[in-house]
Amino acid sequence: MLSIPPKYSVSMVIGYLKGKSAIHIHRKAEGVKKGFIGRHFWSRGYCASTIGLDEEMIRAYVRDQEHLDKQEELDFTQNP
Asked: Domain Transposase IS200-like: where (predicted)?
């Protein structure tokens, strides 16, 4: 969970964090400096709230991401 100053858009901050962290994790795990293009690490979505969701709702959202990603991938392969 994080707080984003109003001068930055949520999507810009999340995209930056996901992009940089995925590259860093790839480099550490694979031991290479290049070759991350075309690979995916994070799920596509994120949860943002301006009204204050409770922590349990956020945890449930994160828990359900793996199931939702698998379903979306299955739907895509069946109906390209």
From this structure: 1-65
Contact 66, 44 (CB under 8 A): no
Tell me how far apart the alpha carbons of residues 27 and 5 are, in angstroms, rounded to a whole number: 29
Catalytic member of 8, 16, 46, 61: 61
The predicted model scores a pTM of: 0.53
Burial 35-63 (b: 16+ CB within 10 A, else e): ebeeeeebeeebeeeeeeeeeeeeeeeee
Does residue 16 carry a catalytic annotation?
no
The span from the CA of 48 to the CA of 66, in Å, is: 18
Split at pLDDT 50, 70, 90, the class of 45 is confident
